[in-house]
TrEMBL record:
Residues 1-23 are annotated as: Disordered. It comes from the Bacteria. The keyword Amino-acid biosynthesis does not apply. Residues 184-313 form the Nudix hydrolase domain. Its cofactor is Zn(2+); Mg(2+). The lineage of its organism: Bacteria, Bacillati, Actinomycetota, Actinomycetes, Pseudonocardiales. PROSITE patterns: NUDIX, NUDIX_BOX. Its EC number is 3.6.1.22. This is NAD(+) diphosphatase. Transmembrane segments: none annotated. One of its GO terms (cellular component) is cytosol. It comes from Streptoalloteichus hindustanus.
Length: 331
């Protein structure tokens, strides 16, 4: 019997095994918002949309007011929802510091950087509540944090050094000195789940921890793409640099924005020999080890943590990668 495309041939009568993918849509990739580029340079339409808009406030630490209720259906425990604010206290027209997030379900959404008012509301960040928001709120907060972080670090023109100003409802900056226009920056990064050579998807996954992480917290390996480098080449280089082993069969899984401060995480899988000695990079990797699938499954079943093994949180694409690997199709 021939295997279907993408499946591994098996003995007669056995169920074919499909190479694993992401367990689901990464939490911060979810969105229902139409960004509506056409309105960004239309001052009249922007003013009209501002007066009836819902406003997302974000403090310098990337936190926003939230309340319990709603939230992502797949999340365990109580979900969260953004606590939107009225635009009236901030003026009749959108202030220069406001950024247009887009339109969803007939509502227009803006975001604004403010100082926190913790006496009145609960403020949380993407790491804490990103996976507990519904698709609309998750997309809104991810875009808001990404845009506002970029503006915080793009005040001066890279060509002439003049102070730039926000234009196009916060989706660009204009330099009055030389006329240069700049757009939001995103830094490409790879994150790779390396498994061993047993079967199609392996029986062990390579996990590592950085020195600055809490004890017992582990994740898959990641790093930034360098200039003139493909994402696949970056995977091979980063794994070799961080733990000293070679990988093969690099394949793409999916991506997720990670605006902390401005990354796009591109998820990959790769295969390596478990016999190769691991050599953690000084200053970058505190420890690296192979973990059996059963232990990963047990940690996931326990909510993401067991004594000695704390997995990435639900807001990270790493969690979807590990869940997909631990319970692949056909198993």
């Amino acid at each position: 019997m021939s295997a279907l495309p993408g499946e591994c041939p098996t003995r007669e009568g056995a169920r074919p095994v499909t190479p694993f993918g992401l367990a689901g849509m990464p939490a911060l990739s979810r969105s229902t918002v139409d960004r509506d580029e056409s309105v960004r340079s239309d001052a009249e339409r922007l003013a009209r949309r501002w007066s009836e808009a819902r406003l997302v406030l974000v403090d310098p630490r990337g936190r926003t007011p939230v309340h319990r209720g709603g939230g992502a259906p797949r999340a365990e425990g109580d979900g969260y929802a953004l606590a939107f604010q009225e635009t009236t206290p901030f003026g009749a027209a959108p202030p220069e510091a406001a950024v247009l997030l887009g339109v969803s379900g007939g509502d227009t959404y803006w975001a604004l950087r403010v100082g926190p008012d913790e006496a009145d509301r609960a403020w949380e960040d993407l790491r804490t509540v990103g996976a507990l928001l519904d698709d609309t709120d998750a997309g809104l907060l991810t875009a808001a944090v990404a845009l506002l972080n970029w503006h915080d670090n793009a005040n001066f023109c890279a060509a002439c050094g003049s102070h730039t100003r926000r234009v196009k409802a916060g989706w660009a900056r204009d330099c009055p000195g030389c006329g240069r226009e700049e757009y939001p920056r995103t830094d490409p990064a790879v994150i790779c789940l390396v498994h061993d050579e047993e079967g199609v998807n392996g029986e062990h996954v390579l996990l590592a921890r950085q020195p600055v992480w809490p004890a017992e917290r582990y994740s898959v390996l990641a790093g930034f793409v360098e200039a003139g480098e493909s994402a696949e080449a970056c995977v091979a280089r980063e794994i070799a640099e961080e733990v000293g082993i070679a990988v093969r069969d690099v394949r793409y899984l999916g991506s997720q924005p990670w605006p902390l401060p401005r990354s796009l995480m591109m998820g990959f899988a790769a295969v390596a020999s478990r016999d190769a000695p691991l050599r953690p990079m000084d200053g970058e990797i505190e420890e690296a080890r192979w973990v059996h699938r059963d232990q990963v499954r047990a940690a996931l079943a326990a909510g993401g943590a067991l004594p000695g093994l704390i997995l990435p949180g639900r807001a990270s694409i790493a969690r979807q990668m590990l869940e997909g690997w631990a319970n692949p199709p056909g198993h």
